[in-house]
Amino acid sequence: MTARTTVYLDYAASAPAREESFAAERAYEDSPIAGANPNSLHSLGREAARALDEARRDIARCAGGGFRPSDVVFTSGGTESNNLALLGLSRGAHQRDRKRTRVILSAIEHDSELDVTGVLRDRGFEVTLVKPGRDGVVSRATLEDALGPDCALVSVMSANNETGVVQPVSELAEAAHAAGALFHTDAVQAFGRIPLDISQADAVSLAAHKLGGPVGVGALLVRGRVPLAPQSFGGGQESGRRAGTQDVRGALAFAAVARACCGSIATARPQVSGRAERLYQRICAEGTGIVPTTTTTVGAERLPGMVSVMAPGLDSQSLVLGLDERGFEVSAGSACSSGSLDASHVLTAMGIGRDQALGSLRISFDERVAEEDLEAFALELVSLVKRTKARHQ
């Protein structure tokens, strides 16, 4: 029996591991520091600490925006980075200025931020959600209308994890700072795909596995002048900002993948954007019954390998399972919300009706996915949608 060929198109959930990640992990395992605690005072501990600091330098350099190696706090991934940012920065801002009792988030943030709102309220903070326009962009004017002297923190993601829409981070950060608030951005999806617009950000969340690094390692970049109240305790690691023995192997693999991806943005981005544009043209052609979720599908305002579409009147979960049977792996939105039976909060916040949003699909990939695989996927998706609509008529 011939094994089924699978085309994986869910890179926004987790990208396949890259050889650079494997090579860095093998080099670590073959080195004298394998297993050594980087917080120990003996020779191997100090050598492990130097390796960890080198990973900080690489990640800070790749991220840009004027962040320094000492600003890099290693975490277990994007979720922890976002949790630490929201809880730690809001608390730090409030400790510095007691009138700062409100946090502003965009309504299209990842669940690792939106699900923190209850904790923030329990800690005495009011939470305000600002919505994007129909184009998926949170405008400066919208944010300025919500800002005030009571705002401690603003958090808006660099690029949305469902639609791929890039946000005007510098403009939003400038508005937040003008009101005396801190600004954080979740750059988990954008890092290594596009140059980050973070020179005005106070803190930035990153994760390795979105690029093809190991699962379970991420970073929160926090400028040294920014007040961050720690949220875990039991050690002085990460300059007292995040307790726990660091994963040196994971950090080195993260740094290796960051170097590879950030170093190839200039060539990979136009290549992947071109493939995304052709995919949109194939699956959103007249008569397919499939439409884009946003008014802008490709270009500087979008992540290069994120295709976001809807089949109005159909159920996205049925489409995902139907495509899976045919060897194509996509998602209905954020993988962290894959168990939800409701419409995407991102699309509804953009003003898309629930019936339309229930038929949404997210197709995500990078330069490692071949053009012919995308062509085969397009044919299968269009055929599946037409057959499904015919059965419902």
UniProtKB/TrEMBL annotation:
Xref: InterPro entries: Aminotrans_V_dom, Cysteine_dSase, PyrdxlP-dep_Trfase, PyrdxlP-dep_Trfase_major, PyrdxlP-dep_Trfase_small
Domain Aminotransferase class V: 7-377
Protein name as it appears in the record: Cysteine desulfurase
Keyword Iron annotated: yes
Top-level lineage group: Bacteria
UniProt cofactor(s): pyridoxal 5'-phosphate
Similarity comment: family membership: Belongs to the class-V pyridoxal-phosphate-dependent aminotransferase family. NifS/IscS subfamily.
Entry keyword set: Iron, Iron-sulfur, Metal-binding, Pyridoxal phosphate, Transferase
One Pfam match: Aminotran_5
Native organism: Tractidigestivibacter montrealensis
Catalysis performed (reactions): (sulfur carrier)-H + L-cysteine = (sulfur carrier)-SH + L-alanine
